[in-house]
Prior knowledge:
Blueprint: E1 5-8, H1 14-25, E2 29-34, H2 38-50, E3 55-59, H3 65-78, E4 84-87, H4 103-128, E5 137-142, H5 146-149, H6 156-176, E6 181-188, H7 195-198, H8 204-208, H9 220-231, E7 242-245
Helix pairs in contact: 1-2, 1-9, 3-4, 4-6
Amino acid sequence: MAAKIVVVTGGGRGIGAATSWLAAERGYAVCVNYARDKASAESVVARIAKAGGKAIAVQADVAVEADVIRLFETTTRDLGPVSALVNNAGILEQQTRLDEMSAGRFERVFATNILGSFLCAREAVRRMSTKHGGAGGAIVNVGSAASRLGSPGEYVDYAASKGAIDTLTIGLAKEVAEEGIRVNAVRPGVIRTAIHASGGEPGRVDRVAKFVPMQRGGEPEEVARAILWFLSEESSYSTGAFIDVSGGR
């Protein structure tokens, strides 16, 4: 059986960390990508190694083309040919209305969330597509329920960036369907991760939970399970598809 090797962008914390751990449990060698938080990424790698798995931590800013190319080259060199990508890295900034946002903010959010996802998907396709001599594989984009809800008064820019991820998922899935690559997306709702602190409201999950039909926030592990299903052969006839992990919201 061919080796299963996955790149998880933003793999050191939150949903990325939970996905890295679960992937390792299910037999993947994992590249845990991080932009700045080396300690968290190395902690994930250490946990995987302690459990008998194989993982490496690789620093790369997904918004920088040269970094993304190096990320995939390093993974191939140290682990082997990439067979899966989880496009998870994403950022948001302080909660505010669109008319108070700067052009610099748009550029930062779109660079990581959109450009980063496109660059990583491109490098994965170049390596996995049968058209390029690859053995096929799977890409899972981590979107957001925000693409459907719009995040008014908080993160319209973030929501728009995740709308782009929805479109990327649909278009790329059709583009590479005959080349052995499946492309799907998981759209989390309000999940208990540190990203909310970036927006200035660490307790946002508890405030928003009352608007969720299930009346609670989600856990990173609940998102990771959906991601791993899309990576697995259990979803072999699914491409261009979405799973909303949002408690019914």
